[in-house]
Amino acid sequence: MARRGKPAGSERPLPPPLPPERRTVGQLVGEAIRAYGASFWRSLALGIPVVVANALVWARPSNDLSPALVPATALLIAISYVLALGMVMRVPVWGRDGVVAYLLAVVLFLPVPLLVTLFVLPGLVWLSLVGLAVPAVLVERLPVRAAFRRGVALARVDFVHVLGGLSTLALVIVISQFSLYFVLREFADNTRMIAAALAALVVSPVVFLGSALLYVDQEARLRSRDER
Questions:
Q1: Rounded to an integer, what distance in angstroms lies between the CA atom of residue 87 and that of residue 45?
Q2: Sign, Cα dihedral of 55, 57, 62, 68
């Protein structure tokens, strides 16, 4: 009989998380948050390039769509992505492979702002299809051409998971940033820009860590399919 005041089975342990080859999108987000908490300060630093990129955009008038912002944003966002891959995969990012992976990430991020201005989904589809080429360079140490083929193969093994994962991470970041923005704006008379910068700094690392974990999921799915 269960003790009074505690429902029966309340002390039953939680089920273990699914392995990467069967991990759901919800668990992907959960594992990204877990990785964030396990190395908080290093993960928080991933948000600094995002804050700088946002500051460059905010410094422009609303009607000024300067082409220089696109490569500047790609240069900054690629830093966070490659560093997140190094943290999740526990591989060095300062050698030759890290430099090649960074330059490849910059090139792949270049069309994203243009695609997002049309509609968010094309940008997510593009990153889902080719984005895994970056960890193929950094982790598997493949040359760029082979990394593209490997990245597409990893994406195709479960494209719904990749696209759904990136879409969910994007939705989480938008909702969390807006929520945190409105909370911070009400305290100590924070300006809107400061509140938005703090929100981006705190929340954006989840997206990069989750994107890095997508490589783990897809690599496990492809390996499991090949074994079968």
A1: 12
A2: positive
Helix, strand, or coil here: 81? helix
Please count the helices (runs of H) and the strands (runs of E) in the chain.
12, 0
Is 3 inside any structural domain?
no
Whether residue 78 lies inside any domain: the answer is yes
Write down the pTM of the prediction. 0.86
What contacts 2, CB < 8 A, 6 or more positions away? 8, 9, 10
Work out the pLDDT band at 33, boundaries 50, 70, 90: very high
Question: Which structural domain, as residue segments, surrounds residue 78?
Answer: 34-227
Number of domains within the chain: 1
Q: What is the CA radius of gyration of the chain?
A: 19
pLDDT of residue 1: 43
Residue 21, domain member (yes or no): no
CA distances from residue 202 to 63, 128, 140, 168, 208 in whole angstroms, order as listed: 28, 24, 30, 17, 12
User: What whole-number distance in Å separates Cα of residue 9 and Cα of residue 32?
Assistant: 29
